[in-house]
Amino acid sequence: MRNFCVLKSTNFGLIIYLMVDESTYKSEYSICFNQYVICTILNEMRMSHWVNRFYIIDAVTAVMLLDFRSEACDYMGHKEVNGGLEIQFRIYPEGNRCYKINIDFENKRLFCNDKTYPFGNLDELLRDIK
Fold first, then answer.
1. Distance between CA atoms of residues 89 and 92, nearest Å
2. How many CB atoms lie within 10 A of CB 46?
């Protein structure tokens, strides 16, 4: 097993690719003026079916704010909106519908389908959108 790191600059910011082991790859996206980091881990779910599980941490304290890995959420992309974040993902095994969640880091709120959830209720939000 070989570990390696590749730095790549994109319109999402700096991405760091880390090979954790032979079947797992990790990427990090700096967001909101480098205050937060979206970490993705590429996992093979089935033969040749890859899912980007993800979580969001505070870049300064390294505290995990939101963890989407338990539901096999597949990270599709993000964009910064009004000081917050809009994140797009799919939930597997179905994976045929793309979901969008708006995140307000300042007030620690999640917005989806005209409903508001506190950060601690991520599981409830994921249950509601399925």
1. 10
2. 9
- Cα separation, 65 vs 52, in Å, equals 18
Q: Which long-range contacts (CB under 8 A, 24 or more apart) does 107-114 make?
A: 110/66
Model confidence pLDDT, tens digit, residues 19-74: 555 446 888 899 998 999 999 988 877 777 788 899 999 999 989 999 988 777 89
**How far apart, in whole angstroms, are the C-alpha atoms of residue 130 and residue 121?**
15
How far does CA 130 lie from the centroid of its chain?
A: 17
- Can you name the residues that pair with 90 across neighbouring β-strands? 74, 98
CB 89 within 8 A of CB 96: no
Residue 83: pLDDT over 70: yes
